[in-house]
Automatic annotation (TrEMBL):
<dbReference type="GO" id="GO:0005789">
    <property type="term" value="C:endoplasmic reticulum membrane"/>
</dbReference>
<feature type="transmembrane region" description="Helical">
    <location>
        <begin position="193"/>
        <end position="211"/>
    </location>
</feature>
<feature type="domain" description="Fatty acid desaturase">
    <location>
        <begin position="70"/>
        <end position="288"/>
    </location>
</feature>
<protein>
    <submittedName>
        <fullName>Desaturase-10</fullName>
    </submittedName>
</protein>
<dbReference type="InterPro" id="IPR015876">
    <property type="entry name" value="Acyl-CoA_DS"/>
</dbReference>
<feature type="transmembrane region" description="Helical">
    <location>
        <begin position="74"/>
        <end position="95"/>
    </location>
</feature>
<keyword id="KW-0472">Membrane</keyword>
<dbReference type="GO" id="GO:0005506">
    <property type="term" value="F:iron ion binding"/>
</dbReference>
<keyword id="KW-0443">Lipid metabolism</keyword>
<keyword id="KW-0408">Iron</keyword>
<keyword id="KW-0444">Lipid biosynthesis</keyword>
<keyword id="KW-0560">Oxidoreductase</keyword>
<keyword id="KW-0275">Fatty acid biosynthesis</keyword>
<dbReference type="GO" id="GO:0004768">
    <property type="term" value="F:stearoyl-CoA 9-desaturase activity"/>
</dbReference>
<dbReference type="InterPro" id="IPR005804">
    <property type="entry name" value="FA_desaturase_dom"/>
</dbReference>
<dbReference type="Pfam" id="PF00487">
    <property type="entry name" value="FA_desaturase"/>
</dbReference>
<dbReference type="GO" id="GO:0006636">
    <property type="term" value="P:unsaturated fatty acid biosynthetic process"/>
</dbReference>
Length: 362
């Protein structure tokens, strides 16, 4: 292990990592937050690429408002939605957090949509995101929010990783990813599949299917759609780690940010870092219902493609927020009238019962 590497875990990933009855860690993790001195080694290729994407996107917005066919704008939105589900439900909730299980056809579909989103292969995405949760807000966190808003948004992709991040990633158990043939297939063929799915098809289809111009097809469903996609994910790492309330655990940087949710449809980030293995975006059914990723997982569960959906019990959520929250939990209202007894019994399942059961048998 190189010097300066701090092996202290500052966050949980799975139920099995938890040390307290209310599913937290048995230490004050706020004391672990840090951003030590860093030598920034810039990756100029990435910086030039991001500049091109953002300038190209402004042109894409202009074309979308002035000369694009309506089918092209609708198509761009649909491609964005597929990528968001591939990343949100696939590489995030299924492969990083194992918050539900999926049959092979669904895993293949999510893998294709995830590839279309071009944010690294599932294997790399899940490894980096596990590192982010396990070493949250330390130098082993790839987008350590302690280093500032810009660094956690996109700055981390403009420079080389800290050695702590690489070491943190190596300490993680990735056996499940190695054993998943869909993940391994995508890893092997990523550089052949990604350009076709992310850039070629979204440009070619509008031209051949409804006679769109090449310029519009390249700048709207391809460049603009892709740039929006990456910024959505980056905003959760940046804005939702800096602004908002912390009703579940005030020792963590991640926050509940309704603004980020409205734009990114993901932003209840204090809940997510407190209970990362929960398949839901939040404990609030109304917002889950309006979150496409969660709606998609529930739809897949209805048709039998997704199963073993994990959700933390209402009792645990309440106990945890009372012990470690910042006192704003009532703002979201656990006793909100919309959260009926019927929904509580449907959604408040698994985790702590399974854990108690395991403790009894083990
Ligand atoms: Zn986070
Ligand atoms: Zn996560």
């Amino acid at each position: 292990m190189p010097p300066q590497v701090d092996p202290t875990i500052s966050g949980v990933l799975f139920e099995t990592d938890t040390q307290t009855e209310d599913l937290g860690l048995d230490q004050d993790v706020s004391k672990l937050k840090k951003a030590g001195p860093k030598q920034y080694e810039y990756i100029w290729g990435n910086i030039a690429w991001f500049l091109f994407l953002h300038v190209g996107s402004l042109y894409g917005i202009y074309l979308g408002l002035t000369s694009a066919k309506w089918q092209t704008n609708v198509f761009a939105f649909l491609v964005h939605l597929m990528c968001a589900i591939g990343i949100g439900a696939g590489s995030h909730r299924l492969w990083t957090h194992r918050s539900f299980k999926a049959k092979t056809p669904l895993r293949v579909l999510l893998m294709i949509w995830q590839t279309m989103g071009f944010q690294d292969s599932i294997f790399e995405w899940a490894r980096d995101h596990r590192t982010h949760h396990k070493y949250a807000d330390t130098d082993a966190d790839p987008h350590n929010a302690e280093r500032g808003l810009f660094f956690s948004h996109m700055g981390w992709l403009c420079c080389k990783k800290n050695p702590e991040v690489i070491e943190g990633g190596k300490r993680l158990d990735l056996k499940d990813l190695y054993e998943d043939p869909v993940v391994m297939f995508q890893r092997k063929h990523y550089m052949k599949m990604m350009p076709l799915l992310c850039f070629v098809l979204p440009t070619v289809l509008p031209v051949y299917c409804w006679g769109e111009s090449w310029t519009n097809a390249f700048f709207i469903p391809t460049i603009l759609r892709y740039t929006i996609g990456i910024n959505v994910v980056w905003s959760v790492n940046s804005f939702a780690h800096h602004f908002g309330y912390r009703p579940y655990d005030k020792s963590l940087n991640p926050r509940e940010n309704i603004g980020v949710w409205m734009i990114c449809v993901e932003g209840f980030h204090n809940f997510h870092h407190t209970f990362p293995w929960d398949y839901r975006a939040t404990e609030l059914p109304f917002y889950n219902m309006l979150t496409p990723t969660i709606g998609f997982i529930e739809l897949m569960a209805k048709i039998g493609q997704a199963y073993d959906l994990k959700a933390v019990t209402p009792d645990i959520v309440k106990r945890r927020s009372q012990r470690t929250g910042d006192g704003t939990h009532h703002l979201w209202g656990w006793d909100d009238p919309e959260f009926t007894e019927k929904l509580k019994s449907q959604l408040g399942v698994v985790s702590h019962e399974a854990r108690a059961e395991k403790a009894k048998s083990g």
